[in-house]
Amino acid sequence: MTPEQHIKKLRDALNEHNYRYYVLDEPSISDYEFDQKLKELQKLEEAHPEFFDENSPTQRVGGTITKHFETVKHRYRMYSLDNSYSKEDLIDWEKRIEKIIGKKVAFSCELKYDGASISLTYENGKFVRAVTRGDGIHGDDVTTNVRTIRSVPLVLKGTDIPDSFEIRGEIVMPLDGFTTLNAARVEAGEEPFKNPRNTASGTLKLQDSSEVAKRPLEALIYNIQGEEMPFKTQYESLKKIRSWGFKVPNAAKLATNLDEVLQFIEYWDKHRHELPYEIDGVVIKVNDFEHQKELGFTSKSPRWAMAYKYKAEQAKTRLNKITYQVGRTGAITPVANLEPVALGGTIVKRASLHNADQIEKLDVREGDMVFVEKGGEIIPKIVGIDFTKRKPSSKPTTYISKCPECKTELVRLEGEALHYCPNVKDCAPQIIGRIQHFISRQAMDIQGLGEETVSLLVTNGLIRNYTDLYTLTKEGIIPLERMAEKSAQNIINGIEASKKVPFERVLFGLGIRFVGRTVAQKLATHYRSIDKLSKATKEDLMSVDEIGVRIAESVSNFFATEENMEIVERLKQHGLQLEISEADVKDKTDKLEGKTFVVSGVFEMSRDELKALIEKNGGKVTSSISSKTNYVVAGENMGPSKKAKAESLGISIISEEDFLKMI
Ligand code: AMP
Ligand code: ZN
User: CA quadruple 56, 57, 60, 63: dihedral positive or negative?
Assistant: First the structure.
């Protein structure tokens, strides 16, 4: 095989696997095998730059920076949709259609995905351009960003593919991915995103396409525009488009009369929460393209299509009290404590009020009857107030000016939405929060010590910061409430063991604002020791791959603070890993990066050795099987319940030998 043939073969195979994974949701090879093939292709492409192709699967990882998105004219205008909210609206619409066409027509019923609309251009079976809707006539060219979205086929398959066409769809962020993304942001001390829709459209306009590649976006397709299309109806077109490799959700249905349309609407109103992404309604389209042509457009929208919007689920309840929480970084979050009420299948007791501006904008007050809504948000939000129920004695809410915990005057930096308690050193929830973060699984993973105990240790005056943990003695902690001798010993052992935790996790544990796990890893690998890192200037920090001004400032501020340097110095004296050890560097790889393992059964080597090997190669070991597990390494006598669980979740079960081959 010539290198060219080899490259082609790998690209074809990867495109196919990509399709199976992201469009069909039916992978036929393991992630590991996929990564191996991708790496092989990368190597070949590096060795043979003459075969570069912007539509190669290797280009999905992004890397191009777009400073300015160019404005492009749509070949076919992108219309908006008329909205309807009731059965009557739809009956009227059908009457109008009947009058023009002269008879009853069939409809294609589809979900109305809630994201950002996109138009994708394909020429000769290849992806060439992606443009946002913009004002419908012109949009922004976001091609490099959209190329990273795995469900967008770069090379089409199947038959009857027109030479040139534009295909339309919605870029959405599925709820699972949204939740994971937000968890990582919170972990890094960043503000979580508000909802999947804004996150999806915001992500499309990021300048760095490799950042886009990391965000879990999907393209759901619903329409095609072009000359001489090989189909005559909308419903047929969806099936055909799907066969070319696009992700066209299967929910679409052909309705031969309005009753069937109404059934479709009713069904999805009930079941929409089972979908992996959000919808805000359904779209009904006249099925026959000839009919569509006859019906034509108004100035804004097609006469042959109608959106039916679902009401967001709402509940009305009393706001009992507004309280304020202080996070580990000192950020203040106002919380509405509600009279418990049922909403979207759960009981809601609290709602987010976001910040002072939001409270002022809503004019929300204690004692109000409020409307609560649940969207993709993590906790429900208050969207309005029933002013008719407000008592004349009610007074406007004044936002607190002092920290609810330590009474320090709050500050609000310019351009920031949140108030902060600046009393970093002495504010109890900040002190406790920092130590809780330090001991957490992803950081020092101190066994035997829980969040409650940390609170107790602080409130009893035994510790004030995380270095103090290393001076605790068994005798010192036994007097704590409900502390048995054995658990006290476990805590001490756990703390002792944490001295072996590698540098990057210690660095993450320090709780520097905006330094999440990935950034900590980057900084650790680049600077190799806390001494070098603490001396780095802002400019120097910014020269590190993916470190921007915000992170750089935060890191240099952290080390410019004397107390922090003292704490670091003490951690060093206690023998924590504040540099990368040479042994680590030598046999460390990232072969298993991003993969989560569960180890079960008896092996040739000891289980600890096996776990250490996984971690050394960048993998993660957890104790129980969940949907996040990638592999179960099974030894002899693997527990049958574990096995059943892995099988039911479709997780690959591999032997010790398979595992060794992986590394
Ligand atoms: P609106 O923004 O409320 O005017 O609704 C129109 C938008 O709905 C379109 O621009 C599309 O982005 C979006 N949409 C979502 N799902 C569909 C679908 N199945 N068919 C047509 N448009 C859809
Ligand atoms: Zn405070």
Answer: negative
pLDDT tens-digit profile of 295-334?
Answer: 999 988 999 999 999 887 788 999 999 999 998 889 999 9
C-beta of 326 in contact with ligand 1 (< 6 A)? no
389 is catalytic: no
What is the value of pTM for the model shown? 0.65
List pLDDT tens digits, range 163-174: 999 999 999 999
Using CA atoms, how far apart are residues 286 and 291, in angstroms rounded to an integer? 7
- Residues around the ion ligand 2 (C-beta < 5 A): 403, 405-406, 408, 421, 423, 427
Q: How far is CA 560 from CA 234, 321, 364, 554, in A?
A: 63, 40, 41, 10
What is the distance in A from the centroid of ligand 2 to the CA of 402?
A: 8
Q: Structure tokens of 283?
A: 């779209």
Q: How confident is the model at residue 584 (pLDDT cuts 50, 70, 90)?
A: low
Contacts of 636 (CB under 8 A, 6+ apart): 601, 602, 603
Regarding the beta carbon of 80 and ligand 1, being less than 6 Å apart is answered: yes
CA distance 207 to 164: 28
Q: Give the three-state DSSP class for 357.
A: helix
Q: Is the CB of 218 under 6 A from ligand 1?
A: no
Of ligand 1's listed atoms, the one at least distance from the Cα of 285 is 20
Residues 186-204 have pLDDT tens digits of: 777 777 787 889 999 999 9
Radius of gyration of the chain (CA): 28
Residue pair 519/547 in contact (Cβ under 8 Å)? The answer is yes
**Cα–Cα nearest to 397, from 372, 352, 417, 367:** 367
Q: Which domains, and CATH codes, for the chain?
A: 3-61 (1.10.287.610), 72-256+276-309 (3.30.470.30), 312-421 (2.40.50.140), 428-500 (1.10.150.20), 503-584 (1.10.150.20), 596-662 (3.40.50.10190)
Residue 293: what are its φ and ψ, rounded to 5°? -60, -45
Confidence (pLDDT) at 354: 87
- Cα 474 from Cα 469, distance rounded (Å): 11
C-alpha–C-alpha distance, residues 168 and 152, integer Å? 11
Cβ of 133 closer than 6 Å to ligand 1, yes or no, is yes
CA of 80 to the centre of ligand 1 (A): 7
First CA to last CA distance, the chain:
27
Mutation to probe ligand 1, out of 74, 76, 79, 80 (largest number of atoms < 8 A from CB): 80
Instruction: Encode burial over 524-558: b for 16+ CB neighbours within 10 A, e otherwise.
Output: bbbbeebeebbebeeebbbebeebeeebbebbbeb
**Nearest-angstrom CA–CA distance, 492 and 474:** 6
Question: Catalytic one among 43, 87, 112, 611?
Answer: 112
Beta carbon of 109 within 6 Å of any ligand 1 atom: no
| DSSP codes joined into one string, 411-464 | B--TT-SS-B---TTT-HHHHHHHHHHHHSTTTT--TT--HHHHHHHHHTTS-S
